[in-house]
Amino acid sequence: MSGATYRFFAAAFIAVLMLGCKDGNGGRHDFLPPIGQNSASPAVNAGSAAVSSPSCSYSNNVVPVQVGNCPSSPASSTATSPSQHYSAAPSASPAAQAPAPAGGIRVPAQTALPDIQIGGGTLDMNAAGLYELDGFETTAATVSALHALGKYVVCYYSAGTYENWRSDASSFPAAVLGSSNGWPGEQWLDISQTAILEPIMVKRMQMCKSKGFDATDADNIDGYENSTGFPLTGAEQLTYDEYLPQQAHLLGLAAAQKNDPDQVAQMVNFFDFQVAEECYSYQECAQYSPYRQQGKLVVDIEYTNDGKASVSAATFASSVCPQDKGTLGFVPILTDLNLDAMPSFCP
Questions:
Q1: Model confidence over 40-59: pLDDT tens digits?
Q2: Are the CB atoms for 184 and 35 separated by under 8 Å?
């Protein structure tokens, strides 16, 4: 079975499993990871920019994000399907970031249009101002190509779950592995064991830095509200979560808080922006307002195919955009659970 086909059926199965269910964090789920180490690599459409990677080069400027064996032609690396087609994004300004704060850490602009695409697919480098890509699967060449076009690039990694396909999976002892979080090959981590986990996460952030990313997005940092298999407390979660942006800052990287609206008040002064999932669907958006009150970007990701939490294109335009963009000053996007296609933006 091809990586794209496997990803499609896995997402479909999980969507059915989660239909109508609410987890301990108000119902929104965490990012769908790439399924398997051999999944199809995303392709990058750089427009007129000349791009190459250490392992691949194409005359029409399309390169795969993942280092490894390259397809014989750019067309074969495209992982989108007709059911995952979204409207074209509006033109984004190349300078889609705020001035650098003290210490030289670049933070994203409050209105940066984000393409959060960690699951593969075709990457259009001219469609957005901010790109969030999988830290393991993305090459330094891709990050450099995006920077050449003036884009802000965020490094995705999971700080709260073990993923059995990652290159550093052997670093996690069995004692820190808990219950499945519902995604194939993924288990919650015992984040109270900071002596074990913090060095692993620092190495992941160093990986992001070495590839030239501007910021990190540490996923699954709300285990205390979920069935992890460990008796985690909110205080333990804060200790772990607040360590992550501090280490990112020491490396010169900005840091995004992922979800966890109940602890925004404690974490807003540590993180530089917020990436929330389905806050419209579960009526949590107002809880992220402290970020905007400090002039920080808030992204709300709504999904088209997440059971009862699904948002249609019509609802996105008529309800999500007026609330998120118009009233709260957020930047909402509408996309697929696979996170392998360019999202839709508000008009």
A1: 334 555 443 333 332 222 22
A2: yes
Pairwise CA distance, residues 55 & 254, whole Å: 29
Instruction: Give the separation between CA 60 and CA 55, rounded to whole angstroms.
Output: 16
The CATH number of the domain holding residue 117 is 3.20.20.70
- 3-state DSSP assignment of residue 43: strand
Helix, strand or coil for residue 275? strand
Does residue 43 contact residue 74 with C-beta atoms inside 8 Å? yes
Tokens of 44: 């990058």
Token pair listed for 227: 């069935």
Question: Which residues span the domain enclosing 197?
Answer: 3-345
- How far is CA 168 from each of CA 29, 49, 165, 216, rounded to the nearest angstrom? 24, 33, 8, 18
Whole-number pLDDT of residue 273: 98
3-state secondary structure 243-306: HHHHHHHHCCCEEEEECCHHHHHHHCCCCCEEEEECCCCCCCHHHHHHHHHCCCCEEEEEECCC
Rounded to whole angstroms, how far apart are CA atoms 149 and 147?
Answer: 5
Q: How many domains does the chain have?
A: 1
The three-state secondary structure class of 178 is strand
Spell out the residues 6+ positions from residue 105 whose beta carbon is closer than 8 angstroms to its own.
249, 252, 253, 254, 272
Mean pLDDT of 317-338: 97
Closest CA to 266 of 242, 248, 283, 245: 242
Upper half-sphere CA count for residue 144 (Cβ side, 13 Å): 11
Location of structure tokens 């205390």 = 224
96's tokens: 């889609």
Whether the pTM exceeds 0.85: the reply is no
On average, the pLDDT of the chain sits at 78
Strand, coil or helix: 36:
coil
Residue 272: name the closest of 202, 206, 209, 216 by CA. 216
Residue 170 carries which DSSP code?
G
User: Of 1-15, 66-80, 269-283, where does mean pLDDT reach its minimum?
Assistant: 66-80
- Alpha-carbon distances of 49 from 60, 67, 150, 206, 233, rounded to whole Å: 9, 19, 12, 27, 48
pLDDT at 160 over 50: yes
The string of pLDDT tens digits covering residues 230-277 is 999 999 999 999 999 999 999 999 999 999 999 999 999 999 999 999
